[in-house]
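Cross-check.
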Amino acid sequence: MLNQQQKQAVEYVNGPLLIVAGAGTGKTTVITKKIAHVIEQKLAKPEEILALTFTDKAAEEMLTRVDEELDVGYAEMQISTFHAFCQKILELYGLDAGLPNQFKLLTQTDAWLLIKKNFDKFNLDYYRPLGNPSKHIHELIRHFSKCKDELVSPEEYLKYAENVKLDKDNVEFDKSRLTEIADAYHTYNQLLLDNNCLDFGDLIYYTVKLLEKRPNILKSLQERYKFILVDEFQDVNWSQYYLVRLLSNVIPTEPEKRVEGSLSNRPIQLTVVGDDDQSIYAFRGASVSNILRFKEDYKKAKEIVLTENYRSGQEILDLAYKSIQNNNPDRLEAKLKIDKSLKSVKSIKSIKAVIEHLHYPTLEEEVRGVVEKIRGISASSADRRDKEPVTWNDFAILVRANSHAEPFISALERAGIPYEFLASSGLYRQPIVLDCVNFLRVVDNYHESTAVYRLLRMPFLNFKENDLQKINYSRDKKSVSFYEAIKRAAEYGLSKEGIDVCDKLVGWIHEGMKRARYEKPGAVLLGFLEDSGYLAHITHEETKGSAEIIRQIYHLKQFFDYIHKYEEVMPGAHVSDFMEHFSSVLESGDEGNMYQPSDTPDSVNIITIHRAKGLEFKYVFVVNLVEDRFPSRRRGDGIELPDALIKEKLPEGDFHTQEERRLFYVAITRAKEGLFLTSADDYGGARAKKISRFLDELGFVEKEKKIRKEKIKSSSEAISYKSKVIRKETGEFAHEMPKSFSFSAINSYRKCPYQYKLSYILQIPTKGSHYFSFGQSIHSTLHKFYKQVQTLNSAEQGTLFIDHGTHNMEQKNGEVRVPTIDELLKMYDASWTDDWYQSKDQKDKYYKKGKDILKEFYESNKDNWTIPVTLEGWFKLKIGDYFINGRIDRVDKLADGTLQIIDYKTGQSKEKIEGDDKNQLLIYQLAADSVTEYRNLGAVSNLTFFYLENNLQISFLGDDDDLVGLKEKLLETIENIKSGNFTATPAAHLCSHCDFKDICEFRKL
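Predicted model, tokenized:
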């Protein structure tokens, strides 16, 4: 049920709209309901809506919430991050901007590696010190990124640097350094283009340049996107804001001449949602000034302020409001003369929130006090039958920086309280990843003794401490490597079990060396994990509900994703190449990005305040509230961008303190019922720390002075960890369930729920199949071929859905233009992947077989070519309350105006289509019948499997009974998945073809 302010925001469609949404006021609800309202009222089709946000997680949540609001499926809706949207634009139109339309997107680490590899091309002096030449590379990359955020071109920077050299009165910058940086920026950008690469800043920078240079493309996007919505608008930087202005048809001129465009004389349907008090990302280029600038550019924009809070007790909201007012007069509230004070809704207002400042003599006692408080609240809640029980998940410890988390992690570990450290990086430090890296290191160089030692300590080997001491003693005495020592384990008096472990490890290393001669790094590593029993160990432990094992499985999946991305870029690379690359990555300072699932075990959450934004907890501890920790000490940007090149409005006042205060505001407003602000005198320095000015502003320092007059309790009364630790308290792990389902996932569950869990929930890596590699090669070739057919016949548009009537008119005498057979075979070579073939001979035979298939396909279609209306057409189909998504290989429009849905198969043909094969095509029929974009193309008359090996097409069409029966099966399966029932259903005929048969303890073979 929407409140009055929310309802007004959802239904307003008469022009630009600024929604000022305070913390906990339901901004995501408003955005998603507004999108649904626009679609349901037929004000725009799904593909005519553009919603932009900042993280993949936020985009996914928004898409999920929109799906829940809609009663029908759809084929296209652009809800994405700014960068993903711009990447799509550049892939479609990059050639118009002089860019490759197939480019590699570089992370900051990738950019660091590229610069270091080409360092000799940079004319650097000051920024390339002799003692540490790569010292400033990260600073340079961050500076280049800031340039692109401000839409500063290399030419503009060079020109500015030259003018500054001529201006003797300008002493803002050292002239030689400025020229050095400008020249480096130019070299860096050219280096990217020479290598067909773009960085993340380029995505928006070049999209803006494209739209400025190609007004016809800009106009087509303006006409397509009838409604534009931007979430977290306070976090946009200048380039993102400028892009929104272009797309919403505000002609970007000089500020004093800004006018609204006149496209079709329709009002600009731009909705931006933000809160200047929650702008906390200045380090990534965000500028709070842009939300203030919105009203200048869109003078007729309506303002709606959301102030009803659905999260926190009124006491917490009042404290947060009192704190943030210290940022006046630079806040939106003061600038626009609006009231932003938040009010708890009735259901929450009845709960009196607890707010306490807890001060201690030392950091150690602060940590103990926090743990004691958590334990006390948890214990006392069991006696309160009138309220919901308190779980560990209800607690959050918010730290200003990752480095501040360690004392609390150690304390919770010692106290036996389960915790989850929600860090954004550190993948390469995780135990299972270290095991994987060290196996590859040994395969690359078996003399790496530390790596062999690490492998001996793998948890499932249970290598005895006594045997390890014997190995170490004998190795030192005889001066041999660890590898030589474990080979000679029998000579050193190890136990029978110890000798057996050493022999096995030597065997796994030797097998890895053999595989490394012809297999890729991922395949070599996966072979070891299977042969050694490592995968079997973690899947077995997972069935016991071990939260730590589940975390390791997530980490393993992420590391394999990393390896696979490397293999895509370097298809011929071997283990030694990967290890050389990985060593450089570690040298760059990259610790490895970590994906954090939204569902975690029942545990106390330790998290940085930046990552806590958007989350909420019953009880929040904001810790280390002392000067230089929170607020943090101001640090420069490393290399400052000259003010003359900055296009956004520069902040006034003490910007750093204002940013830190906004961060404090965000931290406070995460709390629902209890807020605990903690500090200490001694953090290890020579002087006592001053309590944070943010506490002083709220009157807590005066209170503390009075309390200090009383005797401080002895630290001996704090937690005695050892005496209280009997067992580790754990909660049940809630697996993260998919938001939507594919046919292959549903089919996997119907075969065996445990197979589904391993594959789609835990995502255990599996060996690939040469059948899959071959099929992918053929599918990719035909996709490229028919994309070219569309292009040759003027049928390519910015959407997957082609107006069949239009492109027919452009054909000469009904003739369809197609690539030549030689061009088709070149596409095959470009698409060929040689993964997972068992031998060179097998690979060569399949490669020749693929050529023969394509030649026969080309010859048989010579006088019967068609122009597909969709290729790889995506859809999201709603069945009951759930969504099923998928892609259709190809859809043709027949002479009678009906549609033929075609799915390619590279295996042997079947006489009759039934079972899973039939259901797969029936899902496509359901999608084409119910999703508007497909339904507008025509009715489906044929569902066709195209068996390429036999050049045979078999068609049918589902009747009403088929479709109703399939819907019932799909609903039943999805509801079973949602219930969390993953009980194995082994059977010999299923297990023999299962990817997990070698590690599954339930298998029947």
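The chain has a mean pLDDT of 86. The CA atoms of residues 425 and 594 lie 5 Å apart. Passed to J.P. for a second look.
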